[in-house]
């Protein structure tokens, strides 16, 4: 795949961090309002796909620093692990649990199993979509 135009490459460099930041916002917002792991994973993957169109597969893989299939696998493991904590306290599988640890300089933070599950979904969607698109781009070359 040949690199894109000057405008495309400039915008891809500019939009990659902004889209990733927006995807994290969508991920964290998804519990009370529209959003969550699936749509946030799609937004993040679209950032890397734009980068792939601008700079090609090798540059995109260098930015990712990890194989897309590995990212999807880690997401599956994290999503599955979100179901385990309730079992240890005698609750049903996949019951939502919340913890409120006090973190210095930040204050009280909410950590919960639905958020852990959403992070797993986020990584699974990101890795799956990127694996498909990178495979198609490599086949084209």
Describe the structure.
By secondary structure, this protein is mainly alpha-helical. The chain has helices at about 5-30, 35-55, 55-65, 70-80, 85-90, 115-140, and strands spanning about 100, 100-105, 105-110, 110. It has a two-stranded antiparallel sheet with strand order 1-4. A two-stranded antiparallel ribbon has the order 2-3. Helix 1 (about 5-30) runs antiparallel to helix 2 (about 35-55) and helix 4 (about 70-80) packs antiparallel against helix 6. The termini are close together. The mean pLDDT is about 90.
Descriptive tags:
about 140 residues; mainly alpha; two-stranded antiparallel ribbon; 6 helices
Global mean pLDDT: 90
Percent in helix: 55-70%
Largest sheet: 2 strands, antiparallel
Shape: elongated
- What's the total helix number? 6
Secondary-structure-derived class: mainly alpha
Report, as a whole number of angstroms, the end-to-end distance.
Answer: 6 Å
Strand order of the largest sheet: 1-4
Radius of gyration over all CA atoms, rounded = 18 Å
Unreliable sequence segments:
none
Strand portion, in percent?
Answer: 5-15%
The string of secondary-structure elements, in order, is HHHHHEEEEH
Number of strands: 4
Briefly characterize the structure:
With 141 residues, the chain is mainly α. It has six helices and four strands.
Task: Please give the structural blueprint.
Elements: H1 6-29, H2 37-55, H3 57-64, H4 68-81, H5 85-88, E1 98-99, E2 102-103, E3 107-108, E4 111-112, H6 113-140
Antiparallel strand pairs: 1-4, 2-3
Helix pairs in contact: 1-2, 2-3, 2-6, 4-6
